[in-house]
Design a protein that fits this description.
Strand content: 5-15%
Shape: globular
Radius of gyration: 18 Å
CATH architecture of the largest domain: 3-Layer(aba) Sandwich
Largest sheet: 4 strands, parallel
Structural class: alpha/beta
Oligomer: single chain
GO molecular function: amino-acid racemase activity; hydantoin racemase activity
Number of strands: 8
Helix content: 40-55%
Distance between the termini: 29 Å
Number of domains: 2
Organism: Vreelandella sedimenti
InterPro entries: Asp/Glu/hydantoin_racemase, Hydantoin_racemase-like, Iso_Racemase_Enz_sf
Order of helices and strands: EHEHEHEHEHEHHEHEH
Number of helices: 9
CATH class of the largest domain: Alpha Beta
Catalytic activity: D-5-isobutylhydantoin = L-5-isobutylhydantoin; D-5-benzylhydantoin = L-5-benzylhydantoin; a D-5-monosubstituted hydantoin = a L-5-monosubstituted hydantoin
EC number: 5.1.99.5
Length: about 250
């Protein structure tokens, strides 16, 4: 069986979170799958707003371009629950590019007719609501709940963060009439099994969900379509700090 190389892109710049996400993905990778991880050189240390997402989306695109220059990468995973820059990333490569929110929604509907999302901050729940509408999963999601913890507290205060997440998951189980829970942050990737044991419901976490979907697409020989809006970007001139993006060395025919 050929080796499948999947690149996990953490859109924020916190190296310890990149390492934790990488480890969680490696533990779930199938035989014959190599997992590597990267993060942008510049950008927010965590992603908790629309502004953070816009800045991080540029970093995601740059990481895909780096991967394409390296060669040998069969699929990419965008490891932030807002799926920042997802469609732009798909324009830059024929390889599958999977966002962790989209992946988690898909897998949750395969094990339950209704799910709730448990995320970090209430304001990021609004972003998740937009994604549910965009992807067509609003009717599957009963509620979006927030543990009201900053993303970086998942590392700075792990016991407190875990307790709050479990408490919110238990409320979702008892009050939302659901069959599964979706964890709404890539930084929760290493908590899935512990939370599932505490709550007693299937818990879907996006990094590993996206990894398994990426493996499936590669093994099925499916790639990102280069027809229509996901065709490679037309070459053009960029100015100022983005001048290095001028006339990218990408194929421009479908």
């Amino acid at each position: 069986m050929p080796i499948v190389h999947i690149r996990i892109i953490n859109p924020n710049t916190t190296a310890s979170m990149t390492a934790a996400i990488h480890q969680a993905a490696q533990q779930q990778a199938g035989t014959g799958t190599t997992v590597s991880a990267s993060q942008p050189d510049a950008g927010p240390v965590s992603i908790e707003s629309h502004f953070d997402e816009v800045i991080s989306a540029v970093g995601v695109a740059e990481e895909v371009l780096k991967g394409e220059r390296e060669g040998g990468i069969d699929a990419y995973v965008v490891a932030c629950f807002g799926d920042p820059g997802l469609l732009a990333a798909r324009e830059l490569t024929r390889a599958p590019v999977i966002g962790i929110a989209e992946a988690a929604f898909h897998l949750a509907t395969l094990v339950s007719t209704r799910f709730s999302i448990v995320t970090t901050l209430g304001r990021t729940g609004i972003i998740a609501e937009h994604l549910l509408q965009q992807y067509g999963f609003s009717h599957h999601c009963r509620r979006i709940r927030a543990a009201e913890i900053p993303v970086l507290d998942l590392e700075r205060h792990p016991e407190m963060a875990f307790t709050r997440i479990v408490e919110e998951c238990c409320r979702a189980r008892d009050e939302d009439d659901i069959g599964a829970i979706v964890l709404g942050c890539g930084g929760m990737a290493n908590l899935t099994q512990e939370i599932s044991r505490e709550v007693g419901l299937p818990v879907v976490e996006g990094v590993t969900a996206a990894l398994k979907l990426a493996e499936s697409l590669v093994n099925l020989g499916l790639h990102t379509s280069k027809y229509g809006d996901l065709a490679y970007p037309r070459p053009k001139t960029f100015t100022g700090k983005f001048s290095e993006l001028s006339d990218l060395d990408l194929p421009h025919k479908s």
